[in-house]
Amino acid sequence: MASGEEDRTVEEKETNNKKRTKGAIATAWLTFYNIAMTAGWLVLAVVMVRYYLQKGTHKGLYKNIARTLKFSQTFALLEVGHCAIGIVRTSVIVTGVQVCSRIFMVWFITNSIRQIQNEESVILFVVVWTITEITRYSFYTFNLLNHLPYFIKWARYNMFIVMYPLGVIGELLTIHAALPYVRRSGMYSLRLPNKYNVSFDYYYFLIIVMLSYIPLFPQLYFHMLRQRRRVLHGEIVVEKDE
């Protein structure tokens, strides 16, 4: 009996040690990831400010930052993986929608249609993303290090009130500006007849994407408002199962 209990004790200790090791590795990786993403967005911010001070205009700015922006958004796909394997307790669906929508805006809208790259709406959503992501990744980094300054916590749960709507406005205006070029060029569209016997019109797809903001944006926005009440004011918020 004693031997059996000792064996169970040893097994429990080994299991606990493995969990602690995995937890330490996950924390180290997340800390590195968030520091890297904070630095990347800070570099982007510096490049944008320097460009505007030198040129005095936003025209040509997107082309100057396109490579860094595309890399940062593609790298952000790792966040979906973090949720999927459980090292971050966030909905895979919510994270996936947010990350993929930004990749879509960068790769399949702004990067693909050069005629809209100098639109003010492009600069609007890029500036909003930059401010939001510097704040968000800084929050995660300091939180993982257990040294979270209050002003970063405050910024994380207050700035979104203005930034989220501004970002959505910038994205929608950019997609709207792209519609005439998409319609004329027929880009990414598949017309009948073809060997696949399938038709796809990118123009109408973009209209559907714009309409999808109507149900999706309020859900994300009010989710953040609930999080804000919980974190800043200590309110107990009952979340519905997702």
UniProtKB/TrEMBL annotation:
The keyword Transmembrane helix applies. It catalyses: (3R)-hydroxyhexadecanoyl-CoA = (2E)-hexadecenoyl-CoA + H2O; a very-long-chain (3R)-3-hydroxyacyl-CoA = a very-long-chain (2E)-enoyl-CoA + H2O. Pfam families: PTPLA (PF04387). The chain crosses the membrane at residues 32-53, 92-110, 122-145, 157-182, 202-222. Keywords: Endoplasmic reticulum, Fatty acid biosynthesis, Fatty acid metabolism, Lipid biosynthesis, Lipid metabolism, Lyase, Membrane, Transmembrane, Transmembrane helix. It comes from the Eukaryota. GO terms for biological process: fatty acid elongation; sphingolipid biosynthetic process; very long-chain fatty acid biosynthetic process. One of its GO terms (molecular function) is very-long-chain (3R)-3-hydroxyacyl-CoA dehydratase activity. InterPro entries: Tyr_Pase-like_PTPLA. Pathway: Lipid metabolism; fatty acid biosynthesis. Its EC number is 4.2.1.134. It is a multi-pass membrane protein. GO terms for cellular component: endoplasmic reticulum membrane. Coiled coil: none annotated. PANTHER family: VERY-LONG-CHAIN (3R)-3-HYDROXYACYL-COA DEHYDRATASE, VERY-LONG-CHAIN (3R)-3-HYDROXYACYL-COA DEHYDRATASE 1. This is Very-long-chain (3R)-3-hydroxyacyl-CoA dehydratase.
